[in-house]
Amino acid sequence: MTPPSDRFVYTIPASYRRMENLHILFWLLKDIGWCMIWKPLGISMILPTLSIALLITWRTRSIKAELAHNLAIVFWITANSYWTISEFVGFDTVQLGYGLTGKHLTLVPFLLGLGILTYYYLIEKPRETRLEQVATL
């Protein structure tokens, strides 16, 4: 007998897929702007990139695995965007004390995303697996 997790099919409506593809385009444009030091492009793509990431997260909130991964992406884009702005504006190298600079504040959203994924893989996913195993008995 096939375990329940192997029978579950996750489908994405075409409109969601188009939105995700547009999200990738905005994210690439943002990072190209950052890489090439094209400040208007890099900064102008932050809002659409982050907005679509939040919308994707909201729409997939009922599936715990999707929610965890999409929240991690939101925090990743937040960190990446803060880092971009800190370099463009010039506070990435400002000393904050204890050997930390403005760029090091990027660790806050990065670590939040990592924490969410750690929680999901160490606590939530094993719980889901146990529940699936009990359901098949």
TrEMBL record:
Parts of the chain that traverse the membrane: 36-55, 67-85, 105-123
Sorted UniProt keywords: Membrane, Transmembrane, Transmembrane helix
Protein name from the UniProt record: Uncharacterized protein
Native source organism of the sequence: Hymenobacter aerilatus
